[in-house]
Amino acid sequence: MNRTDRLYALVEELRAVSPRPRSARWLAARFEVSSRTIERDIGALQEAGVPIWAEPGRTGGYVVDRARTLPPVNLTAAEAVAMAVALHRLAGTPFAGPGATALRKLVAVLPPADAVEAHRLAGRVHLVGDGPATPVPAVVADAVAARRVLRIRYADRDGTGSLRDVEPLGYLGNTRHWYLVAWCRLRDELRCFRTDRIRSVQALPDVVSREFRPDDLDIPRVRVRALSLV
Predict the structure, then answer these.
(1) Which of 18, 55, 168, 227 suits a disulfide with 143, CB 3.0-4.6 Å?
(2) Cα 194 from Cα 227, distance rounded (Å)
(3) Nearest CA-CA partner of 72 in 31, 28, 23, 13
């Protein structure tokens, strides 16, 4: 069992027996790790906002507040990332801290595979400044998660249209616009397509195998950052 799976399973184990405690030794035997590993895992969960505390004594151990934790959450990876983008807009407000804590709690109780996919998808979203508030076409919004090639009709700044097949790799947002970062098969290079200039979209059956590397963007690293779920 990897660490992500174990963290999720630890919360569920403690929820199942709450308000009774589970000792570090019992949990270590249950998950076939050392007591020290369990203590580190519990510390990580506490830092993420999961309400776990230790009860002292011979019969003590770790307890989770069942009333303040969630059962397995059926959020999709895209929904978790959508929440992260929305919370990014709270920066500088009194709600930024509580919002970030709420998101960490949700991600902490996602099924392991969904949590891994959510972090992977978040790593493909990059923001410059505060990020944009403009809408993105639904097919384009789904493209990076779906890993499917798109056939788009695109208009450049002069309004000249072109039809091209692109491999969606990620998103880039500045204060005014969203861009689809994709490998353009017509130009045989990485391009950024402003989403409000995409006139039509058709999803193709081809699967995208390339990975998004932020270093490929012609933007100083100090100005661009990946979206984070933590």
Answers:
(1) 168
(2) 19
(3) 13
Give CA 205 to chain center in angstroms: 25
Give phi and psi for 189, each to the nearest 5: -165, 170
CATH 1.10.10.10 occupies which residues in the chain?
3-68
Dig out the tokens for 209 from the structure. Answer: 């195998």
Query: What pLDDT shows up at residue 59?
Result: 77
Model pLDDT, residue 188: 94
Task: Write out the E strands in the chain.
Answer: 52-55, 61-64, 125-128, 148-155, 161-173, 178-184, 189-194, 198-207, 224-226
| Residues forming beta bridges with residue 151, ordered by sequence position | 165, 202
- pTM above the 0.90 mark? no
| CATH architecture, domain defined by 3-68 | Orthogonal Bundle (1.10)
Count of CB atoms situated within 10 Å of the CB of 192: 18
Tokens (6 digits) for 185: 């098969």
Q: Report residue 47 as tokens.
A: 């830092």
Higher local confidence (pLDDT), 215 or 135: 215
Residue 22: which region, alpha, beta or left (left: phi > 0; alpha: psi -120 to 50)? beta
User: Which is it for strands 125-128 and 161-173: parallel, antiparallel or unpaired?
Assistant: parallel
Q: What is d(CA 193, CA 205) in angstroms, rounded to the nearest whole number?
A: 21
Residue 153 corresponds to which tokens in the numbers above? 């009709």
Distances (CA, A) of 80 to 47, 54, 117, 131: 19, 30, 10, 17
pLDDT band of residue 110 (cuts 50, 70, 90) is: confident
